[in-house]
Design a protein that fits this description.
heterodimer; A: mainly alpha; two-stranded antiparallel sheet; about 0% strand; globular; B: mainly alpha
């Protein structure tokens, strides 16, 4: 029986068994994923013929160079980076109170419930959530109604009149867009922060208190520093997901372009695949840099 | 912070902040349910002018919506099956093995969900364009299976770590083959992990749009259909109704998966 013989061979050589187990997934990944990533990098070294619009398959740095040399392209890169950084900082600030409450004060059933409450929105359809925000932020939508009820319409109008962040309505302003990004990635930020806060030994907090620190001092000098790995891990998600998104800026947002929209438009209607590839290298590099920084503060131990 | 010590009371400011964050996480989804019943078909006005079930009937007659739904279900089924097979092989290989490059391999397999989806999508498109493959069902499913593998892997590897090594060793020592050991010792314990991983993978595939917009051909999946509807204000009431349907269809497998893996969380699988 050939199968039986294979079996006894595997018994003698566990390394072979391991090889056979890992071969199909490794092959799949190697060809489909890594192969595609390489093709992507390769495409970014191609260029497009200005007259015929055909892809010229000769290696050149010209396409990549336009990312820095063309002010319009550089603007897109910087705008996306700025949005990603703002969203990252904001999501950590908003995530922290809930994460802290869950880790320090919630027990038993409440704890489980809170977990479910954080994870459920994560698994609610992405597009539906984006759509919900369009309904909420619309000029005649819920948020405006609510603001009017509170008698704060003047405040909202003043906010929307602010240059850069404002716009004709929340649904078409950077402010609204940042709010939607913040909402979308919040669970991804809460969970790692909660996990790292949970590992803070209670003894340390008691020691800090016994040695005369006020609760605020303990929080600033003991709790927050120990939560840094979790904060870094969570912020990776907010940063990376904002950089690559192209649906949210299209559905909710100001007229300015973002990297994702540029990639989508260049590969589609514009038919400039090399430029689309060059633009998608940018988030890859930025996320790479961010991951290295995050690793330094221990983000990977917190996951 | 271990749970054995008596909890002290949370400051009220923290309670309020935590509650506000929770409300922020959940109210937007409720809005969708509300708007599915509105009589208003032009603007997003609030409060709703009236309530109706009319749009559910209108949505049901849209044949393009049904075609998109069928494609999404087919893609999710095929890519879940492929991901379950590949993810399980990967988990069996990685669970106990120690070899050079093991950590690098783990990082590699998480890349499709760690890197922004647009990179995966654009990378697949670059290959599709270079090889001249036609975009459609196959290219969508290939992409989905690639990022679903890691979901199945996480579930299966978490379970494998909880199965004592002595069980498989005993089975092999008593003369069972590798296949028999897998079939009679491991598989029964993996069943619910497969089901949970499979359902999460299904939900992920069913809802995916960022990668899919790059790999799909002319026929839209349900999320792409929905995305296109967003730019057609006249169909807004139907969009609202389909949104509710999508939320329900994705949440059912996720809730089941959570229920199936109740005991796994405290093992530090995260």
């Amino acid at each position: 029986m050939p199968v039986g013989r294979l079996g006894s061979l595997l018994h003698v050589r566990p390394g072979l068994a391991l090889f056979l187990l890992l071969l199909p997934p490794a092959l799949w990944f190697g060809t489909i994923y890594l192969g595609s990533l390489l093709t992507l990098v390769l495409q970014s070294f191609y260029s497009i013929d200005d007259y015929t619009g055909a892809i010229v398959r000769e290696p050149t740095l010209a396409t990549l160079r336009t990312l820095v040399s063309q002010p319009a392209h550089l603007d897109i890169v910087l705008r996306t980076l700025a949005m990603a950084l703002v969203v990252t900082v904001a999501s950590v600030l908003v995530a922290f109170p809930l994460a802290y409450y869950m880790a320090r004060y919630a027990r038993g059933r409440v704890r489980t419930l809170l977990y479910v409450a954080v994870i459920a929105p994560m698994w609610t359809s992405y597009l539906v959530k984006v759509y919900a925000w369009r309904l909420i932020l619309a000029k005649e939508g819920i948020l405006s109604w609510f603001v009017a009820r509170l008698g704060l319409t003047g405040g909202l109008e003043a906010l929307l009149a602010t240059p850069v962040v404002g716009g004709p309505s929340l649904a078409s302003s950077y402010l609204g867009m940042a709010l939607v990004f913040l909402y979308m990635w919040l669970p991804f930020v809460i969970l790692p922060i909660e996990a790292s806060l949970q590992r803070v030994p209670r003894g340390l907090l008691e020691a800090s208190g016994d040695l005369g620190a006020t609760p605020v001092q303990t929080f600033c000098h003991v709790v927050v520093p120990l939560a840094v790995p979790g904060i870094a891990a969570g912020s990776v998600f907010a940063f990376s997901l904002t950089l690559g998104d192209y649906v949210i800026p299209q559905v909710v947002g100001a007229p300015g372009y973002f990297i994702g929209m540029m990639v989508y438009e260049q590969q589609g209607t514009a038919g400039n695949l090399p430029l689309a590839a060059a633009f998608s290298i940018v988030p890859m590099l930025l996320v790479g840099i961010y991951l290295m920084l995050a690793k330094r503060v221990g983000a990977f131990d917190a996951l | 912070m271990p749970s054995d010590t008596a909890p002290d009371r949370a400051p009220w400011a923290l309670k309020v902040a935590a509650a506000a964050v929770l409300a922020f996480l959940h109210l937007p989804v409720l809005v969708i349910f509300l708007y599915a019943f509105t009589t208003d078909d032009r603007v997003y006005s609030f409060p709703l002018p009236g309530l109706t079930l009319h749009w559910f009937g209108v949505a049901a007659t849209r044949s393009d919506m049904w075609a998109a739904l069928r494609l999404s279900l087919a893609v999710a089924t095929v890519s879940t099956l492929a991901a379950t097979l590949l993810g399980t092989l990967l988990a069996l290989g990685m669970a106990r093995a120690r070899f050079a490059g093991r950590d690098a391999l783990t990082v590699l397999f998480t890349l499709p969900i760690a890197l922004p989806g647009i990179i995966t999508g654009m990378a697949l498109l670059a290959t599709i364009s270079l090889t001249g493959i036609e975009r459609g069902f196959v290219t969508i499913a290939l992409g989905h299976a690639t990022f679903c593998i890691v979901i199945v892997y996480n579930n299966v590897v978490g379970r494998l770590r909880r199965i004592p090594r002595s069980w498989t060793e005993a089975s092999l020592d008593l003369g069972a083959s590798h296949w028999q050991t897998f079939r009679h010792v491991l598989a029964p314990h993996l069943a619910s992990a497969w089901l949970a991983g499979g359902m999460l993978a299904f939900a992920l595939s069913f809802d995916e749009i960022i990668v899919t917009l790059f790999t799909a051909g002319r026929e839209p999946t349900l999320p792409i259909w929905f995305f296109n509807e967003l730019f057609r204000p006249r169909n807004r009431p139907v969009t609202n109704v389909v949104a509710v349907m999508v939320v329900v269809v994705t949440l059912i497998p996720v809730v089941l998966a959570a229920w199936l893996t109740r005991g796994d969380e405290d093992q530090g699988a995260r």
